[in-house]
Amino acid sequence: MPKRLPQGSKSEFPPKYLTVGETARILGVSPSTLRLWENEGLISPARSAGRYRLYNHEILSVLKRIKFLRDVQKLGVPGIRKVLNGDGAAGNSILPHEPAIGPKLRKMRKSLNLGIAEAASRAGISSGFLSAIELSKANASVATLHRLAATYNSTVLEFFDLPSQARRLLRPGQRRTLQTDSGVDIELLSIGNKMLEPMLFRVPPSAGSDGSYSHVGEEFIYMLKGTLEIWLGELECHLLRAGDSFWFESNVGHRWFNPSDEDAVLLWINTPVTF
Asked: Which of 11, 115, 235, 259 has its CA 20 to 30 A from that of 172?
């Protein structure tokens, strides 16, 4: 449970505490990412009398380590939790370290003899943003990943460093994980399957696809927790809640967003393998 400050505290924000906005700016992450890490139990900030989250220097040190484990060691939330709990070192976690996708994107672009400007134009993004992604200085959104995959005649799956052999059984710590710029965590639930593609999505508050995208196939969603707003063709809007199941054709332009103040967790299945 989050710690609370005494009701008689003279200041809403004591000097030894930082607000969520100040902490996010120091770390170079979004406030929604800090909320995600809190909801996952990685940190427990204090609360002011007005229920504002407050971060002291001790928590800031933990946050810096979490960011290092995510950005440098490429660990997902389960792997970070193991390291913080002392169940494994960052250098030998059982989680596979997902290499930065930037170099792979650059190699794919160059194999097609595409310049930065032309590739960015086809994907509907700026040249500067594509350059930042290739240099691993920025993460792409789900929509951008799909548009880049289409630009390079590929799938998002090829951005991962996947084993050459299929695996029937995957333990939680063996899953490949990708995190987008808005903090959406995507875990691949299987490796080597040919016709369907099951994934576990964790969408923090105010995060989403950051744009519309489409591709061949069909998609199925089962909501495990929280709320997800999904738009089809900008004409059809559905609000999915825990326990809901939803199906749609992938060739319809679709975008999605978490409008609530809690994480959305959902099983998302594509067929064929197009992600």
From this structure: 259
